Fold this protein.
Amino acid sequence: MKSPWKVFLAAPLFFLLPFHTSASPAYDDQPGSRRSDGYTCVGCVLVVSVIEQLAQVHNSTVQAAMERLCSYLPDKLFLKSTCYLVVRTYGPDIIKLLSADMNADVVCHTLEFCKQDPGQPVCHLYPLPQEPWKFRLEKARQIVSKSPILKSSRSTSGICSLPFLAKICQKIKLAIENSVPFEDVDSDKHSVFPTLRGYHWRGRDCNDRDDKVYPGRRPDHWDVQQDSNCNGIWGVDPKDGIPYEKKFCEGSEPRGIILLGDSAGAHFHVPPEWITASQMSWKSFSNLPAALTDELNWPQLSGATGFLNSTGGIKENSIYLRLRKRNLCNHRDYQNLSKNGASSQNLEKFIESLSRKQLLDHPAIVIYAMIGNDVCNGKTDPVPNMTTPEQLYSKVMETLKFLNAHLPNGSHVALYGLPDGAFLWDTLHGRYHPLGQLNEDVTYEQVYSFLNCLQVSPCHGWMTSNRTLRTLTSERAEQLSNTLKKIATSKTFVNFDLFYMDFDFREITKEWQERGGQPWQLIEPVDGFHPNEVALLLLAEGFWNKVQLQWPHVLGKENPFNPQIQQLFGDQGGH
């Protein structure tokens, strides 16, 4: 699960990198490596496959299919204009190759977006041709042998090298790396801008020019003059002169929700309509710019901190919305500090983005949910790169000491165990991937194999036909969960109590089946790995029910003044 978004970000970035630069972000920790080449290869194969299928669905030429795809893309982020530039640059060669019955694998190897390293196997999504690969590739190269693109030198600097974009790219890079808002005038770690780590990730600021005003703080002088904690409750009741914040919130035990997580907690999601030719239209890509600037995550719909109504057709809500419903004084008090590729071993790089002042702010419920990357990586042999129980113990203790030094007294910390991801292979391997549904030619087994070969799999250990490796990965996950359980039952801290909770995906799968659903419907269809929105909300329900049963004090009181708050302040300024 090391930065899984880079794999699928490669497809839209394929259009933004017309001079054959790496499609992996500038802050890839292995520039120029097989991994970064792998992202480019995946992006190319996805895009060429979609072009081929668009031509098939609309009974059009390849040229028309490429132009159709570009017409669907938004103007924002230069997506549409750059797509047309790529078509002008590579279109003639792609047309020649597809017209000669070369598939996407051959096209991308011919154009050198995919490479076969010496001594390494050919990485391919589709079945290899009947004739030997080297003959097929040589035939394709002959078709485009006179191409000026292949003869010209390739720039490796990328779009961010352009003078007018260099500074903005660097600022965006830092915002993503540090997990702090890109737009934050008063530097209080809260923003009025939705994406780029803005209020999709943490409660929206209600005064971005005053660093003493932000969600989650204790009210300043009961918010007589202004709404200092952004919960929409302020002013004085003219009938008795009592401030509304004091009247409605004092003694109600307000608290926030903070998630320390990985891509699953951030709700990594690639809409299947982005790669499904039969469903594709300009509406399909209307949310692409926002998704890209949220790192292909949708925290506003996540199980822990989501504040929007579910798009999955179920009634369950996020943990934050449940806390808010329980006590409207908790409005906007959420922080999703999840990061793609996050694990116990690198949390220290962005935990400083936590926005909680020990003496000024309300207590918080903190969920530690590093559920994958300590056992998941894309290496050919993933086992040596898995976190050991000793390494986990050391890093988690460092994290807990940090939280003890920053959380207000009366907070709570939940340690989530790791799932047994062996069900991924059992559930999906024989099913058709969205890219293969039109022609029934790409299964999840093929996708897994392709990603593993390129060493860009989110989790080679579970996304593999190797039963022994899947078992080893599950055993390590269980060892790490037991380590977290040991910490939760043996360690105490001054400013928070500590408890452990299993990440039991099989339990929610059983519940989903009892509702008439199928297990595969709980997994992200494009990446074939992450829990989808429905699964995340069912997990949130499971968390809430268990806490209510075993540790009800964690959730705080139900506020009896909620009806009055709603009557006077409506939606409290929204989210």
User: Anything to note?
Assistant: Residues 480 and 520 are 26 Å apart (CA to CA).
